[in-house]
Amino acid sequence: MKAVNSRASTVGRNPFIHELKFTMTEKIKIFLMSVTVFPVRLLLVSSLMFLAWPFAFIASMGRSDYIMEPQSWWRRFVDVCLRALMRALWFCVGFHWIKVKGERAKPSEVPILTMAPHSSYFDAIPVTMNMCSIVTKLESRSIPVWGTLISYIRPVFVFRSDQASRRKTVEEIKRRANSGGEWPQIMIFPEGTCTNRSGLILYKAGAFIPGLPVQPVVLRYPNKLDTITWTWQGPGAFKLLWLTLCQLHNPMEIEYLPIYTPSKEEKENPVLFASNVRKLMAKALELPLIDLSFDDREISLSHGPLSIHDDSSLLQFHQLVCRLGLRAERTDSLLQDQVQRARDLQGERVNLQEVSTFLNLSITHTLTEVHSLFDQRGDGLIDIRLFVIALSTVHRPSQAMETLKLAFKMFESEDNGYVLEEDLAAILEIMLGVRELDLSGLFSALSGPETAKITYAELHHFIEQHPHFVQDYLDFENHPRNFSQTKNCNGLSHSKED
Ligand SMILES: *[C@@H]1O[C@H](CO)[C@@H](O)[C@H](O)[C@H]1NC(C)=O
Ligand SMILES: *[C@@H]1O[C@H](CO)[C@@H](O)[C@H](O)[C@H]1NC(C)=O
Ligand SMILES: *[C@@H]1O[C@H](CO)[C@@H](O)[C@H](O)[C@H]1NC(C)=O
Fold first, then answer.
1. Where are the transmembrane segments (predicted)?
2. Comparing C-alpha atoms, which of 374, 376, 302, 294 is closest to residue 342?
3. Is the CB–ligand 3 distance for residue 493 below 6 Å?
4. Overall pTM > 0.85
5. How far is the CA of 486 from the centre of ligand 3 (A)?
6. Cα-Cα-Cα-Cα dihedral of 428, 432, 436, 442, to 10°?
7. Distance (Å, whole) CA 201 – CA 17
8. For residue 234, which atom of ligand 1 is closest to its CA?
9. How far is CA 122 from CA 19, 194, 244, in A?
């Protein structure tokens, strides 16, 4: 795949990684705190949590999911107790004082607060301070103790896997937002996942679909040693809790920005609404926009013997595919069907019109861009099989072997199941996101250079035997092994040619 598009520079970054490095002084401090303050704090925090639990449990008993019960005196009392207990809990964690800027709007004015950046479970602090509702995974209800506290604030539950229930979630948000302040405000983290706060990733549209005014809220953790960030690759929840409890003080800042009222155009177009609020929040935070979404996370973090080596072109492809709307409907059976049809073309290269027929999509600017990504020779014709491989790769980045199997189905000879060396090189270039792939290392290791073809079973076996297959047997532009040489080329490396 060609690498085009100027956005590639922001796309290469991976905000789902958190690397923690300690200086010697920090290590000593953590050690000293671990044997003194830490156990006391941990004891206090767990006691407060267990103390809060019965209140939350009683208050959530017998409540309906659809009707807001009247605020009786005892419910108000429980609410005040819970707020006090939660504040005490955060105090014991080390959030002694929390700087709050701006003012939270009333529920009758703004039903939805959009919070960013989302980077940790400590983002629950503003939620417990206001006892707002949140949108959360259904599974969080079954976390012991904490799950009861979550249920208390009447969250809107989502199931990530299933389309129909996603729609239900949006319906529920809409219903509550339109209740005119009867229901608690909903705090939504529109990024939908935790990042390392180095930028704002793409927003999901859920909070913006009702088309009602929102209040953006930005969060800051201005600590020197970042023990807060809890993202996909990096220290786990317990390690972060330990490290955070070992900090003398944990500063935090919550800033309520002015209410944002959508224009007529934004009301009709939630994606535009989301994008404008995101820009405004990024400006307030002085952070860059990173055009990645929750679903790109897997592409950035793929692992295994055939993990994606350079994700920039695949991320770009993924963005285009999402814009084409292929994501929602792209199911495994659809892929199988495309494989069959791509195979039937027997390597015949197709033009833009034929691609549009193949995908049953009209010719748009985005489709043209996708087409040109695969138009390596510049003659307007592409090998649709490579498109299907790229689609399968971004669809299930961690199941590279499945994608490889599917690629073999399209490329193998009907008689004997062999795929030619040059075809395999093209397949792996797409899957790994590399260029100028040379397979001679692989073939000479296999059986000598004269048989430049291979079956799926042979390759599968070989990869299982050699977990560092990509590093040891493949050669490509900017291979880690070649890195020192590329650097010495006075900037004449291939990567700068496009
Ligand atoms: C956070 O993400 C950025 C990419 O946006 C990355 O460059 C940086 O190294 C990450 N920070 C940490 C501490 O891992
Ligand atoms: C192509 O898409 C249209 C709507 O966009 C749909 O009605 C039609 O059934 C689709 N055709 C195929 C073969 O999937
Ligand atoms: C990588 O370096 C080796 C020599 O160490 C060279 O033979 C090979 O062609 C290089 N590959 C690429 C793609 O630059």
1. 30-59
2. 374
3. no
4. no
5. 9
6. -50
7. 13
8. 14
9. 18, 11, 10
Chain position carrying tokens 């941990």: 42
Q: Which atom belonging to ligand 1 lies closest to the Cα atom of 197?
A: 1
Higher-pLDDT residue of 301, 106: 106
Fill in the DSSP letter of residue 255.
E
In the chain, where does the domain assigned CATH 3.40.1130 lie?
A: 24-291
Q: How far is the CA of 190 from the centre of ligand 1 (A)?
A: 20
Q: Report long-range pairs for 269-273 (Cβ below 8 Å, ≥24 apart).
A: 270/205, 270/208, 270/209, 270/211, 271/205, 271/208, 273/205, 273/208, 273/211
Indicate if ligand 3 lies below 6 Å from the C-beta of 477. Answer: yes
CA of 140 to the centre of ligand 3 (A): 50
Helices (H) and strands (E) in the chain, counts: 23, 9
pLDDT at 449 (0 to 100): 56
Residue whose pair of structure tokens reads 């690629």 in the numeric block? 407
The answer for residues whose C-beta is within 8 angstroms of residue 164's C-beta and 6 or more apart is none
The residue among 194 and 297 whose pLDDT is bigger is 194
CA of 232 to the centre of ligand 1 (A): 12
Closest ligand 3 atom to residue 494 Cα is 14
CATH of region 24-291: 3.40.1130
Which amino acid, 433? Answer: G
Q: Is 121 within 8 Å of 237 (Cβ atoms)?
A: yes
The pocket around ligand 1, CB under 6 angstroms, is made up of 13-15, 17-19, 196, 198-199, 290
Whether 476 lines ligand 3, by a CB cut-off of 6 Å, is yes
β-sheet bridge partners, residue 133: 186
Confidence category of residue 6, pLDDT binned at 50, 70, 90: very low
- Sign of the four-CA dihedral 232, 8, 381, 494: negative
Q: What is the pLDDT of residue 328?
A: 56
Listed residue (126, 118, 281, 254) closest to 196, CA to CA: 118
User: By CB neighbour count within 10 A (0-12 exposed, 13-18 middle, 19+ buried), where does 30 fall?
Assistant: middle
Quote the tokens at residue 362: 């009209």
Q: Are 455 and 412 in contact (CB under 8 A)?
A: yes
CA 360 – ligand 2 centroid, Å = 6
Q: Is the CB of 444 under 6 A from ligand 3?
A: no
Nearest atom within ligand 1 for CA of residue 20: 13
Nearest CA to ligand 3 atom 1: 482
